Amino acid sequence: MVDDLLSLKKIQVLSWIYLLVLTVGSWIIHSWSFAWAVLAGGIISILSFLVSHKDVAGFLQSMTPSQEGESDKKEVKKRKLGLILKFWFRILIIGIVLLLLIRSHMVNVFGLILGLSTVVFTVTFTALGVARHYFFSGRR
Prior knowledge:
Elements: H1 2-5, H2 8-29, H3 32-61, H4 70-103, H5 109-116, H6 118-136
């Protein structure tokens, strides 16, 4: 049951749902330009989460146990370096996109920050749901 609550697929779907709720709520409460910023930040955040999930999953799948030879250690080191380089390249791309959005005055900065927090909200709400299930299900 807890595995269902922690499923990465569920977190991905919930992220899109929270983004939709945040965007519509921002549009109703504030303005369309603020909602556009929330949407842009949320899309950036969710896509980054999806790409990093795929990278880490691929890295972990490639780490099959073998006889730990010297060539295996070099290969593992190479894969780690590749994962780290992909991470920093993704951060650089995100930084450039955010810089362009902010410098062009296309988005409200506070809306952008709210949208970028979409995955953080999703993970937090999911963790709280798991904790609630653990403490109140009577199975400790």
